[in-house]
Amino acid sequence: MRTFNIKPVDRSLQSAIQEKIDNLNKPQGALGRLEELALQVCLIQHTLEPTLTHPCHLLLGGDHGIEREGVSVSPREVTWQQMINFTRGGGGVNMFCRQHGFTLRIVDVGVDYDLSGVDGIIDRKIARGTRNFLYEPAMTAEEFDRAIQVGVDLVDDCVSEGCRVLSIGEMGIANTSPSSIWMHLFCHIPLQECIGAGAGLDVHGIRHKYEVLSQAVVKFCGVDGVNGVNGGNGQVAKIIQYFGGFEMVAAIGAMLRAAERHLIILVDGFIMTACALAATRLYPAAQDYMVFTHCGDESGHQRMLDAMHAKPLLHLGLRLGEGTGALCAFPLIDSAVRMVNEMNNFDNAKITKYF
After folding, report:
1. Residue 257 and residue 282 in contact, taking contact as beta carbons nearer than 8 Å
2. Fewer CB near the last or first residue (10 Å), C or N of the chain?
3. What is the distance between the alpha carbons of residues 320 and 297, in angstroms, rounded to a whole number?
4. CA gap 269, 322 in Å, rounded
5. How far apart (Å, rounded) are the C-alpha atoms in residues 98 and 160?
6. Phi-psi region for residue 54, left (φ > 0), alpha (ψ -120 to 50) or beta?
7. How far apart (Å, rounded) are the C-alpha atoms in residues 13 and 345?
8. In tens digits, what is the pLDDT along the chain, a chain of 355 residues?
């Protein structure tokens, strides 16, 4: 696997940043989470005057072999149908990108359909879907490396255009299944508590999903279950490779490269939080660059956030995916940056500082 040079944010300016925030003409701490966001953004960019230039959104598509086991209420053709819909501007992700001024890149990393001739889709296809991890690894080591590199290259393209804010979304039927397994293995949370309805499974469907995923985990871990999984980057990468989707591994590569290049990373819902979890198990310092934008309604999302000590900005009952929650939260980041750049301070405003 490619190595990344990800360092914790440089905190040498933290006192100066905090002093600037505290001296804005408001009661100390009166803007709550916006003040925390402003501090984080300033630390990421190592400046007292942050900017949010050329925000970009990556929409990554891929299919999953485990879908063949009936773990999703949606059939796999919905993946390619939605990918085409996105090129026509008809998805939720399109609307929010237009609203908030994000450049949208729609990327086929592993959709089980020939999208090579569709205008508006970037072709980075590794294979037509992953293998079925109930029986074998979802991808080979070589495919894993290629997927990581897809994410790296996409981020470099965004940075070359002046991007300083990156959000990532996904389109892939059944990708809550690998997300649940990653949550289970990386957080040591019982598998049953990591599995939810996905796109709309009923109680029977959730039970079937649990049985399938449980069999897959036992096959991977052996009789010791999660206790038989050793630590270390090699084992983390093996877990990601064994269960992940191409779009998910590309998202991990994008997050790690974005952290390496000191971008602000907007983390979306359950699937993207699972990717962030995997990325930070490989490189813990990457979390310094992540803003967790919302807690969705998929079962286990809040527990995964709690395991990462992450505080989401929003809880709107979202479970669409596509990165839509991250896009909805962007105005809060914008407000935090405007606060630190545009609000007057007590001295200039000639207001008595009373604390």
Report:
1. no
2. C
3. 10
4. 9
5. 21
6. left
7. 19
8. 899 999 999 999 999 999 999 999 999 999 999 999 999 999 999 999 999 999 999 999 999 999 999 999 899 999 999 999 999 999 999 999 999 999 999 999 999 999 999 999 999 999 999 999 999 999 999 999 999 999 999 999 999 999 999 999 999 999 999 999 999 999 999 999 999 776 678 888 899 999 999 999 999 987 444 544 555 778 999 999 999 999 999 999 999 999 999 999 999 999 999 999 999 999 999 999 999 999 988 778 999 999 999 999 999 988 888 999 999 999 999 999 999 999 998 788 778 777 7
In the chain, the amino acid numbered 185 is L
- In the chain, alpha helices (H): 14-22, 32-45, 77-87, 92-100, 141-160, 176-187, 203-221, 233-243, 246-260, 270-282, 301-307, 324-342, 346-349
Look up tokens 């500082």; give the residue.
353
| pTM of the predicted model as reported, rounded to 2 decimal places | 0.95
Residue 202's identity, in one-letter code, is D
User: Rounded to 5 degrees, what angle do the CA atoms 50, 276, 217 make?
Assistant: 180
Could you list the active site residues?
322
Our measurement of the distance from residue 24's CA atom to the centroid of its chain's CA atoms, rounded to an integer in Å, reads 32
Entry field: residues in the chain: 355
* Radius of gyration for the alpha carbons in the chain, expressed in angstroms and rounded: 21
